[in-house]
Amino acid sequence: MVTRLGDGDHTTVTRGGYLLLLALAALLALVFYYPLALVLTGAFRSTSGWSLSALTSVISDPYYVHLIWFTIVQAVYSTLLSLGIGLVGAYILTRYDFPGKRTIRSLTVIPFVLPAIVVALGFILFFGNSGYLNRALISLFGLSRPPLHILYSLTGIVLAHAFYNAPIVMRVVSASWEGFDPSIDEAAVSLGAGRMRRFIGITLPRLMPAILSSSALVFVFTFLSFPIVLTLGGARYATIEVGIYTLVRTLLDYNHGAALILVEMTISLFFTYLYLRAEGHLAIPTQGSRRLSPRRFLAPPVSVGKVLIALYVLLVGIFFLGPIVSIVIDSLRSAQSWSIANYAQLLSQRYSPFLGTSPLATVRTSLIIGSLATMASLLVGTMIAFFVVRGRIVGRWIIEAALMAPLAVSSVAIGFALLRGLSAPPLRLGGTLTAVVIAHAVLTYPFVVRVLRPILEGLDPQLVEAARSLGSSRLRAFLDVELPLLRRGLLVAAVFAFALSMGEMSATIILMRPGLSTIPIAVYGLLSARQFGAASAMAVVLIAVTAASFIVIDRLGGEKINA
Amino acid sequence: MPELEVRNLHKSFGGVRAVDGINLTIERGELLALLGPSGCGKTTTLRLIAGFDRPDKGTIMLQGQDLLSMPPEKRKIGFVFQDYALFPHMTVAQNIAYGIRFTASHRELVREMIGLVDLLGLERRYPRQLSSGQCQRVAVARALAPRPSLLLLDEPLSALDAKLRESLRQEIRRIQQEVKLATIHVTHDQDEAMAISDRMAVMQTGRIEQIGTPPEIYSHPKSAFVASFIGCANMIAGTVISVSEGLLEMNASGVRLCAATSDRDFYPGDDVLLFCKEEDLRLGGQDATCVVAAKVILTEYHGETIIVHLEGQIGPLRVRLPAIMASNVPVGMQVSVFFPPQACLVFPQKRNN
Description:
- The complex is a heterodimer of chains A (563) and B (353).
- By secondary structure, chain A is mostly helical.
- Chain A has 23 helices and six strands.
- In chain A, strand 1 (45-46) and strand 2 (49-50) form a beta hairpin.
- Helices cover 21% and strands 37% of the residues of chain B.
- Chain B has helices spanning 42-50, 92-97, 106-116, 132-144, 162-178, 190-196, 214-219, 224-229, and strands at residues 4-13, 16-26, 31-35, 57-62, 65-66, 77-80, 150-154, 182-187, 199-204, 207-212, 234-244, 247-252, 255-260, 271-276, 282-283, 291-302, 305-312, 315-322, 334-338, 345-348.
- In chain B, the strands form four sheets. In chain B, strands 6-7-8-3-9-10 form a six-stranded mixed beta sheet, with helices on both faces. A five-stranded antiparallel beta sheet of chain B has the order 13-12-11-14-20. In chain B, strands 15-19-16-17-18 form a five-stranded antiparallel beta sheet, with no helix packed on it.
């Protein structure tokens, strides 16, 4: 399609557009801004009234200062390790062709949908002192004691974060790298630049936006990471998120919790801003220009580089597959032998003290929340995507940022905000399933927007005008033209939202009242009680949801999905 | 009563006046070409009539009905977009049927339309399986199917290559006359406008500079802008020396040129622009006035004719000659170029231009 030039390229906002925006604003104010504001005012209060004591103690008390410092340090290490693993992966993906390359590239979407609690469980089972890796090393080398002590340390947290985030680096950087026009590199060769000089002088500067944007993204993710630190940090290591959780849920100290959220938001918003700026500089590959042609990895000759690459693939393969395979094996073991007893337990209606309810009720609750949250998220996300793409309005940039703000607020903070906001008038929904559904919808709709937005941007607004000049109302045109063309995107978005909701633990654990449980919370409860077989069976349900959603996303062109 | 009547139409986008007081009438069965450079407001005018944008001021009446109170879907206006805007998820037949799918006889009508635009056998294809020329025909058929009262064509040929453009513009004209439909055809190509329109309107910066039949506009452009836009290739700036008995004499860098003019608003000392079409200039001539010395730079072959590019003492010139003359004007030759006063047009030179 030819890009339209000249004087036709204007869209004016209609009355319907303003009404839509107003409805969205009211909805978000009710379920996001009002609760968040309510919570944040707590940072400026003490039991006796208005006061800055909570805020000053959070930035001067050695306990809190250490908490904040450790959060930053672990995020920096996690980002560096993710970069190290991810950049090598991006290099291999870009430069070589090998069997299964497409699958591996598609698999990099998994961190967006694999619940963190599953990763935590996998790490305990695989890297734990009596985990599969240590047991394998003991029997392999005839050792008397486990050689690796990884868990409940900074190393464990950083490794788990790298598991999660290296694929993101790989995805973003290789997507940018593959778009490079090789002519530029060839021009440098013709000017006599050697390999190293070309890499440092030509390739690296062009990769920089991708590296910076993925680093900022990984930093924010690991800075706000909750389930992994909660389970793998043990008693000694805690981050701001865990600190907020403890303050709110155990100590019921809302004022210090609010002060911590304020500090956390300040830092994460800054890095989110950096991420968005770097993302804006990402080179968009021009269609029709030449692409790098990758070399066949398995074709001769064998070189030192290729041996190193094979070694990397082996280690990274063990690193990524080990924890997941451990969960599956563990779920099939009961009383030292193979059995499906753990799965049979899933369908039990008997009360379990670790869950506070029955396993079957837990699964059912998760499915109900997931379905309702997906519907709500799709509805709100679609409306916002339409507004962001089609609305032409003064200050659109600010409105867009305001609509996408939940992306930059931590899940624990959103959970806490809704705990307060939804219990207060006018909603009075505290402790209900509805509260959890609202929290999940708030947490997932930004992803729906991010999936739909590029598709909607590629959809010619003249199609709607054509339909209208042929006698269709605006609504009819939406149903006849936009909806069918968005169907695949909507399906991908729905799958994304459902998978995210099924795996959500951070906000849920804060909002959930006793007697209600979801699968991730059940995994956490069982894992804390060392009921690994039962925890693994629950986790396998989440892995299955992840795998199913991965297949749907991949089938529908997930490579283009911008999560 | 005219089929369409547009009065005093205004539209600004963020302070830029895209359409600045347009008046138009179109009779039933008439094709009006809206001609102008890109950004002159012609597409905006079309979108205001179709109802995709709302005018700031003005009235639009179609068959005596006020259109402004109606949403686009009620206006009974067929619109053909520059890049067709075919529904990608519908076949050719479904695209054409879209506007009439709730009428009882839509099957027959679609078949009739497919015959009209000559797309037989392609009914089940999707737009991505069609050539751009075929897409264009589908777009026209789709717009015509609901039997609109007015057809708006927004540069429908600009995405096509030159040859296809020519054959399709004849086809658009044929179909338009067959269904006797009032039509506005927006284009920036003056050949296209002249070839198919009953009347043409030349637009600049949101206003209509001149409106008339193609011969009227070609032989009597009313302004320097219209003259240059419809292809007066030779433009010479100069100062008026004298005006008498319908003949204006001017000085252009020391050369005296004459133009026949009935306009009495020129006075000695005025800065003016003189235009002469490339087919009106003559080579040779010994008179002291109306002759410019020039050197042949290049000759371009155009079948029956050639265009000779010259570097004259007053700037570059273009002369169209019969092709058999080619050997008479070798590159580098010194020639004298005669400006026939009856073929020359003068316009005041606006200082702010």
